[in-house]
Structure formats: C-alpha cells, structure tokens
Amino acid sequence: MAMEDDLSRIGISLPKNLLDRFDEILNYRGYSSRSEGIRDAIRTYITYYKWMSDVKGEREGVITMVYDHEQRNLLSAITEIEHEYHGIIKASLHSHVTHERCLEVILVHGDGSQLKALAEKLMSHKGVESVKLTTIAIES
C-alpha cells in the first residue's frame, strides 16, 4: 500500500476562471502551494464519497444543485433524470442566480441507494457545478 509520502505527478486541464477562483481560496486559506490545496480537495472528495456510501435505508433528504443554464442540452438532461426519478422526488425549487447560473433544490424521499443514484446522475453532466445530497434516516 502506497504511503501518502509516495508522490505521483499528474497533469490536469482547468478553465482559467476555475483555476483563478481556486488560487484565490488557496491564498485566503494560506496554502503553501496548489499541490497542497489539490491534495486537500481530493481528501475532502474521498471523505464525501465514503459518507455517501453509507446512505442506506429509507431516508428523507434534499439535493442542492448549481448549474450553467446555458450549457447545451443540460436542461433537457436534468429534466429527463428528474422524470426518471419522479417516484422519489417530492418537490423542487428553481432559482435563477444570474443569467447563466441556476440553483435547484430537490426534496427527496426514498431508499438511500435511489437518492444517491439520482444525485450521482445529476452530478455527472457537463455544466453542473455542484451537487450535494443531504439526508436523514426515517426512524420508525
């Protein structure tokens, strides 16, 4: 098993505006390098993924999503996904944050695996900036 001290080099491509925003945060938080900030972001992503893996059983929750309204075919893809999961979607609220960016809040109820599947399908599309699933267990 590789130790965290065993470093591997990777190359990534990012839009300039995303990298600029990332650099601002790194500077504000006092990171010594982009590499350390990226390592921290990856650790956070892994922790979130593990937390999502534990979402099981009947749950009530909310999915918050921010996306680019002008991304080609994204609105129709989101609508198709929401129709596919209509049995667990109880309500949704859509807000136009700017001309390009939208915030959507989706109230969900169902089996944790279905809620995760819905969130993961939404987050897999180009133009979706963020998706966050927050749930609570339904106690008998």
Automatic annotation (TrEMBL):
Domain Ribbon-helix-helix protein CopG: 9-48
Cofactor binding annotation: Binds 1 nickel ion per subunit.
Statement: the UniProt record of this protein carries the keyword Transcription regulation: yes
Domain Transcription factor NikR nickel binding C-terminal: 61-136
UniProt binding sites for Ni(2+): H83, H94, H96, C102
Pfam families: NikR_C (PF08753), RHH_1 (PF01402)
GO process terms (BP): response to nickel cation
Cofactor: Ni(2+)
Keyword list, A-Z: DNA-binding, Metal-binding, Nickel, Transcription, Transcription regulation
SUPFAM superfamilies (alphabetical): ACT-like, Ribbon-helix-helix
One of the record's GO molecular function terms: DNA binding
Origin superkingdom: Archaea
Family membership: Belongs to the transcriptional regulatory CopG/NikR family.
HAMAP family listed in its UniProt record: NikR
PANTHER family for the chain: NICKEL-RESPONSIVE REGULATOR (PTHR34719)
Protein task: Transcriptional regulator.
Protein name according to UniProt: Putative nickel-responsive regulator
Protein's organism: Methanoregula formicica (strain DSM 22288 / NBRC 105244 / SMSP)
Species lineage: Archaea, Methanobacteriati, Methanobacteriota, Stenosarchaea group, Methanomicrobia
